[in-house]
Amino acid sequence: MQHVPVGSVMVEDRNFGIFSTAYGAQQRGHGAVLRLTAVRAKALMGGPISNPGAYPVCWRASRWDGNKQRDWPADASVEGRLIAARVGRGKHQQWLYLFTTLSLSAQEVVELYGRRWSIETDLRSLKQTVRLQRISAHSADRMEKELLVAVMAYNLVRAIMFQAAQRARIDPRQLSFTYASNIVLDGYPKVLAAPTAIQQQQELEYIIDLVARCRLPKRTKRRSYPRQVWGRGYRFPIRRREKN
Fold first, then answer.
1. For the chain: N or C, fewer Cβ within 10 A?
2. What mean pLDDT is predicted for residues 216-220?
3. Average pLDDT over residues 115-134
């Protein structure tokens, strides 16, 4: 957190929705939008939450926060609001609990937290499409080089997607990263091999036009099957020898 510019807004999921994160952001001059677990939100409110809304709260550290690694005074606290909202569609709605120190409206805070999903999709693209889920390097230097090259390739595809989205007058997130990556991987060597700058630009324009067509489908309904977590594998039963 110390490397983040002053005045930034920390948007964190439930793993970081704890007092130390909120207090650290306050001490460094950052805003905070932290998702809370239902248990922590109810404890902060002093009881169950039955209605959506924004509730002013003063978050004080409990005796369990930080354990023996506390770096704040005994009377430390963070002033903010607890926002309770219902998100989702139809019968699949669920509660969302956010703690924030921002002065934005409750709806704006919920929308800001929703943008965090773009980070998750970016990480998915880096792991699956760019294949960073498993690094084959055996030394720190090779690993650093592999990471840098992969991120450079990712940024190149994203830059072309941005230009393609501007040309199509749509949001870049409406384009498929996988399709765009395949087009860039196939067409960029032709850009580098073009003998003149004019021909290079023509090849690049052709790539941008193709990427602009890689639109994601508009899903009006939820998935027909529920998303599930893969369980741990099981060993096959040992086959016993038959007695003669």
1. C
2. 80
3. 87
- Coil, strand, or helix at residue 112? helix
3-state secondary structure (DSSP) of residue 5? coil
What's the rounded Cα separation, in Å, for the pair 161 and 176?
Answer: 9
The single-letter DSSP state of residue 71 is -
Q: Which two tokens stand for residue 152?
A: 């450079």
Classify 85 as helix, strand or coil.
strand
Which residues have C-beta within 8 Å of that of residue 131, sequence separation ≥ 6? 150
Give the list of residues 6+ apart from residue 24 with CB closer than 8 angstroms, or none: 1
User: pLDDT digit string (tens) for 23-37?
Assistant: 999 999 999 999 999
- CA–CA distance, 27 with 30 (Å, rounded to integer): 8
Residues 160, 212: contact at Cβ < 8 Å? no
Contact 30, 7 (CB under 8 A): yes
> Which of 78, 77, 80, 76 lies closest to 101 in space, CA to CA?
80
- Partners of residue 34 on adjacent β-strands: 12, 99
Exposure b/e, 193-203, CB count within 10 A at least 16 = b: eeeeeeeeeeb
Tell me the torsion sign for CA atoms 100, 105, 106, 111. negative
Is residue 231's pLDDT more than 70?
Answer: no
The two structure tokens encoding residue 116: 């965090």
Distance from chain centroid for Cα 168: 25
